[in-house]
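Just curious: can you write a single protein's sequence together with how it folds?
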Amino acid sequence: MTTARQDVVEARRVVVKVGSSSLTTAAGGLDADRVDALVDVLAAVRAGGGASGGRPDKEIVLVSSGAIAAGLAPLGLSGRPRDLARQQAAASVGQGLLVARYTASFARYGVRVGQVLLTSDDVSRRAHYRNAYRTLDQLLAMGALPVVNENDTVATDEIRFGDNDRLAALVAHLVRADLLVLLSDVDGLYDGDPRTPGTSRIDEVTGPEDLAGVTIGSAGKSGVGTGGMVTKVEAARIAAEAGIPVVLTSAVHAADALAGRPTGTHFHRTGKRSADRLLWLEHASTPRGALRLDAGAVRAVTERNSSLLPAGVTAVEGEFVAGDPVDLLDESGRPVARGLVNFDARELPRLLGRSTRDLAVELGPAYEREVVHRDDLVLLRP
C-alpha cells in the first residue's frame, strides 16, 4: 500500500497554479470543459467533502495563466504576439473572459471568486507588499477564492514576473501557504526529454543533489504559454527553500495531487520561511541601477549583515529614484546583493565616500541615513 504524502494531506492553505495549455486551445480561446474540470476538483478539495458554499475545509488560492491566450481568438490573432503592446491588448480582452468563466464555474458550488492582478512592483515595496497580503488574506477569511494573475495589461519588461510559475511560488510565500501545486500539460519532472524512450519520471526531490545531471527542457508543448519545465523547477526550488512543499504534475492529475496520492514530482521543503519581502526582492524585482562598493563595504554587507552607508559606495550606475531596487556590485562588478535604495541616482554622487555624520552637518539630518538599510537588502547567489 502506497503511503500518502503527509505534508500534502495536512496542508490547509494551498496555492494551485495552472498553465495556459491546460485551459485553452492551441489556437486561442478558453476551453470551458477544461476550466470546469479544474473547478470541479478545486471545489471538492475546498469543501473537503462537506456542503458547498460554507466555511472551506481547505483554503485555495488559484494562480491562473490564460489571459493572453484567451484573448487571441476574439482579437483575430492566430498565435501569441511577440510585441508587448499586442500581448497587453490580448490580456485586456482575455482577462475578463477568464475571470468570467471562473466566476460562472465556481458559482455552481456557491463559491465566490475574487480577482487579484499583480506586478512585481506591487510586492517588492514594503507598503505594497502589506496591501497585497491583506487583500488576499481577507478574501480567504471571507470565504472567497482568489484568482491571481500577472497584470499583463500594464506590466512592462522592467516589472514583469516573466512567468506565472515563479509568480505562484512567490504568492505561496506571500499568503503563507502550506503547499504549492503546479499544474501543466506534463505529468511531472523527467530525467530527460519525456518523449525519448528510456527516460523516467522523478517522483521525489529532497534537495538539489536529486537534480544533478538531469536535463530539463525549456519549452512547453502547446505554444500558448511562456513557461516550460525550467520555470517550473525554478519555482519549485524557490518555494521549497522558503519552506513550502511542491507537487508538479499535469492538470488531469490535479485531484490525485491535492489528495496526497503519489502522482507527479514531489519537491520536499529544503529551507525555512525567510523574511517576507526579501524573497520577492530577490526573485521578482528588476534592478533599476547599480552601486559599486569598496572591499570594506562588501564585507560589511555580505559577512556582517550591515546596512550600506555612503562611505562604502564608489560609483553610481543607472537612473533610479528612492525606493527602487538596485544591485550592489563588488570591485570586480559582480552583483553580491540587491536592495531598495534610499536616495535618487542624482543625489548620490555628492555623498559617496563620506560619513553620515559629516553629511548630516553639511546637508541636514535627512542625509544621516543608510543608502540601503539592511532590512531592505538581500544577498544574491554567487
Observations:
- Residues 49-54, 218-227 have pLDDT under 50 and may be disordered.
- The CA atoms of residues 185 and 221 lie 7 Å apart.
- The radius of gyration is 22 Å.
- DSSP finds twelve helices and 13 strands in the chain.
